[in-house]
Design brief:
13% strand; 356 residues; TIM Barrel; 8-stranded parallel beta sheet; alpha/beta; 3-stranded antiparallel beta sheet; 2 domains; homodimer; 15 helices
């Protein structure tokens, strides 16, 4: 049965439907709490948040609901903020800054929020579920989380990554297919392709690990949910579907762009953050595309585009905003989160009944 | 119900399971007939076959079974065989020829089999089902096929292509997700991405056309079949799953490579034919990758690599063979086609029952 399964009981949720931890202001406490209150699992996308912001958000969520929820963080990596940026990249970005009327070559004071500080809050606040992406969790954090009974979810885009995550002690794997919007969770190198579609990825991971698998990528409605369970997943994670919800903090023009897109419109880009992510193709991506190999890595490029994204948001200029979205974004609905969860459940029931 | 549906009854098959029309010798009359005899729909991948070869194969299939089957052809496009090949491409290919001990710069006498001659046989032989890829069928052929009661299936990789095909009068759409092995059926230009995963592609096409949709891409077992029906498809098309069947004409080393691959091993390449296709990455792809933008288009590059592929096959050198395979190729099983069809049905039943 798709409803009663190990993940739902382990997560203590009514429905095995997870709202993905989209970073960058989309996952407001209101969205997270509404999803959890409706019987799913809301996730605070806290990758770009400071420790203090995370603490405030967790408390705000707990004001709104007593149901379980998750916090998602990015595994940090080494970087060199002193490395000079390629002049071609700097010129292209300053050209965009000129169009937006903001100063050229802004000083960057902070590249990424300190991970240890972020983790300290996750542990102190004893969040029910902790999910992460971009790598593996250090054993000391894993041990601390386990000791406090936190359910730990790692993100894999290939079988190799899923196997490595299982060995590291995670409780569940989020299998992120190539359809997924936003950042690719990929972390193991030397892969001819880590853009494996959900239909191919989920069953291959299910066959190779002994822990439950959460399917992500291209799932927007009851059809996708029923399909994911057919593939062997025990829960689903939806990002784009929740991005256009009323409670989501995504920019109104971003929501509109997502709802008006089509299946061909998204591409994988490194332009905004230095890490591969899927979004609706726009001018910023096109301008930076010729310089892809010269872009600084994450989190440097992410920090370098912060002023551009902030100004673009203020000026409602979607052509310079990161419009992360999955390949089925057109199926998103702009409902309240509670309505969306109810609809997803009802649709999944209907699809499952119809298959017999 | 997944079994009793408009496609199964229209195609007069017991199970809505189609063996894809893989070109290049894989779809022997034995394979096609075995799939059809087992209650599925076998397809002769006749894209590279001459009219006379197609006629012989159709007759051989009919000797083996009285069940319906399909013939698949490639929609031709304009090309200029006189255009000189870029010297970088010519050098790289002659380097491969030297490694294989075959003459440099062979004369090419035939680029593609004449489509009108191929179609004449399909019409004369009144095949039950005709499927095509790489474009749209000219109205005169569509009219002739319809008049003879042939069921016509077009291949789409995007919603736009599906809508265009429906308008052209096809009876069904094969929706080819990005996981699929072999050539991409894409034919409409100006798309940021036509690599849409099956999970995202199928429901979006189902919502936009009024004719039945056949899901393809990443489907290897009952889990994939049940998932495809959940997404709204009314039939499934499997290529890689049938490629390793006993009756398949694929080179034994090619079958072995497919069964020993993994989810990360395939990439999209134009190296072998000038058209994008998914296969297991090998040395030939790697050697030609730096010259991708200089490759001649299909069918010129396809004709230019024919001697290389032939010699590589004779010498069991998989590093120079086109190893077309989907992203879930590792799940293929090397059974007899009859056993595979029976297993697929049994598995699908089990998955569907388990979902309730």
């Amino acid at each position: 049965m798709w409803k009663a399964n190990p993940i739902a009981s382990r997560l203590q949720v009514k429905w095995p439907i997870i709202q993905a931890g989209m970073a960058g202001g989309t996952t407001t406490p209101e969205l997270v709490a509404a999803v959890s209150a409706a019987g799913g699992l809301g996730t605070l996308g806290a990758g770009y948040m400071s420790a203090e912001q995370i603490r405030q958000a967790i408390r705000a969520i707990r004001e709104l609901t007593d149901k379980p929820f998750a916090v998602n963080l990015f595994i940090p990596e080494e970087f060199d903020g002193e490395q000079p940026v390629a002049s071609t990249v700097a010129i292209a970005m300053n050209d965009v800054r000129e169009r937006l009327g903001i100063p050229a070559d802004p000083a960057v004071t902070r590249y990424a929020e300190p991970f240890a500080e972020q983790m300290a809050v996750v542990i102190e606040e004893q969040v029910p579920v902790f999910s992460f992406t971009f790598g593996m969790l250090e054993p000391r954090w894993m041990a601390e989380l386990k000791q406090r009974g936190v359910t730990v979810v790692g993100t894999a885009t290939t079988v190799r990554e899923a196997v490595a995550l299982e060995a590291s002690g995670v409780d569940m794997i989020a299998a992120q297919g190539s359809e997924a919007g936003g950042h690719r969770g990929s972390f193991l190198p030397d892969s001819p392709s880590n853009l494996v579609g959900t239909m191919a990825l989920v069953p291959q991971i299910v066959d190779r690990v002994n822990i439950p698998v959460i399917a992500a990528g291209g799932i927007m409605d009851g059809r996708g949910i029923a399909a994911a369970f057919a593939l062997g997943a025990q829960a689903v994670q939806l990002g784009t579907a929740f991005l256009t919800c009323v409670e989501s903090g995504a920019h109104p023009e971003y929501k509109r762009a997502v709802r008006e897109t089509n299946d061909e419109a998204t591409v994988i880009t490194r332009a905004f953050s230095g890490k591969s992510a899927r979004g609706i193709e726009n001018e910023f991506m096109t301008l930076l595309a010729p310089h892809d190999s010269e872009l600084p890595p994450y989190p440097v490029q992410n920090a370098l585009t912060r002023d551009i994204r902030t100004a673009a948001a203020k000026q409602n200029r979607t052509e310079y905003l990161s419009l992360w979205a999955g390949q089925a974004a057109f199926l998103s609905r702009g409902l309240r989160a509670e309505e969306l969860v109810a609809k997803l459940v009802e649709e999944t029931e209907r699809v499952v009944s119809g298959l017999r």
